[in-house]
Design brief:
The structure is a single chain. The chain has about 180 residues and is α+β, with helices and mostly antiparallel strands. It has 3 helices and 12 strands. Helix 2 runs antiparallel to helix 3.
């Protein structure tokens, strides 16, 4: 039974060049601008890897040639009275599943052409500096933990964001491991 909250799938990319990570500078009208990793909503009829390639192309100008491995999957049950980013949907909260890939292959030059008009710049940022930006964003805390080596590749994290602004991790599912 649906409670009226939107349910969305998001594809996000960790694109590295040595000790640097691609970050995009973005913000919707009326929203403070911030640095984050390239990401966006999976559209109807798209597979998550197709959305990943499309979003990276739009937000950075780079072409993903190999999506690589799943860095982690984060599912957020947001029960706060707030809409999806950029004012999408009613202010009822939402359920979002974020598929973050550690991209293995890409080429091209940074040249964002975001059709939504919310990305203003893309650049390679030292991983240490990127952590400063990611730590400022509640929805990027697992990304920062992954980059610090605190979350293993392939982990699934289930979080509930509470109406009192609190947050609880409901479950963390470690990736499959081989058994001897």
């Amino acid at each position: 039974m649906s409670d009226g909250r939107p349910q969305v799938q998001i594809a996000s990319a960790l694109i590295r060049d040595g000790e640097s990570l691609v970050m995009v500078y973005q913000g919707a009208p009326g929203e403070d601008r911030f640095w984050s990793i390239p990401s966006g909503r999976v559209e109807d009829g798209e597979l998550v890897t197709e959305a990943l390639a499309r979003e990276v192309q739009e937000e950075t100008g780079l072409e993903v040639t190999d999506p690589g491995r799943i860095a982690f999957v984060l599912q957020i049950d947001n029960r706060r009275a707030e809409p999806l980013r950029h004012g999408r949907g009613p202010a009822l909260g939402y359920v979002a599943t974020v598929w973050t890939f550690d991209v293995a292959g890409w080429h091209g030059a940074l040249a964002p052409e975001d059709p939504d008009g919310v990305v203003f710049d893309a650049r390679f940022v030292a991983v240490e500096e990127s952590l400063v930006h990611l730590d400022r964003l509640e929805w990027q805390s697992v990304t920062a933990s992954y980059l610090r080596g605190e979350v293993a590749p392939g982990t699934v994290v289930l979080e509930r964001w509470l109406t009192d602004r609190g947050r609880e991790t409901i479950h963390t599912i470690a990736p499959w491991s081989s058994r001897s």
